Amino acid sequence: MKDENIADYSIPVHQSLMEKKVLFGIGEKAFYTILICTIILASLVSIYCIGIGIAALLICRRVCKNEQMLLEFLFENFNQQDKYIG
Question: Which of 26, 28, 46, 67 is the most buried (most CB within 10 A)?
Answer without folding.
Answer: 26
